[in-house]
What does this fold into?
Amino acid sequence: MTATPAKTDITTPEHIRLLVDSFYGKVRVDPLLGGIFNGVIQDRWPQHLAKMYTFWGTVLIGEQSYQGAPFRPHKELPVDQLHFDRWLLLFHATVKEHFDGPVAQLALTNAERMAAMFMERIAFFREHPQRYVQ
Ligand code: HEM
Ligand code: HEM
It folds into this structure.
């Protein structure tokens, strides 16, 4: 009998790449989300993935490599709670598939907070279009 090796926590840039690549691999073929992502990103997937390495590297392993305004590209997307639920389902599945530990847990809670915050701001700007600055 061979013991199943314990899953690692998220601690290195290679782990971040594995997380991001596996997650967007699922997203791109998802019936609900795939079309939305591919419609905006088109042939810029390498750039999007590179940016997401910096985002999660900054949030999870202290890289400070991400510079950006995370909400901006989401504010006019045709998405609702249903889409964020699917996004979170795929993200949870990806994290659980590869990792285990406190940083993996931090990834899950941060994703949930970010999704809730995005959904709230999207709903707000839909109700108050006059508050759009740009
Ligand atoms: C109540 C929840 C949150 C609010 C109101 C908030 C708000 C903001 C704002 C206003 C910015 C400046 C750029 C922009 O307008 O998009 C920003 C940047 C950023 N946020 Fe958040 N955020 C929240 C939660 C989170 C969470 C949960 C994460 C981690 C997943 C996160 C990660 C970041 C990062 C990495 C940046 C850019 C880098 C930096 O300036 O440090 N935020 N956030
Ligand atoms: C229904 C859910 C979501 C959809 C459809 C979505 C879609 C997108 C799209 C189309 C882009 C722009 C790509 C580009 O033009 O280069 C983007 C960027 C991004 N997304 Fe999402 N997203 C979702 C949820 C989330 C969540 C929950 C997070 C955070 C945990 C997140 C983090 C980011 C970040 C950091 C960027 C890069 C922003 C920048 O340009 O600096 N997204 N997303």
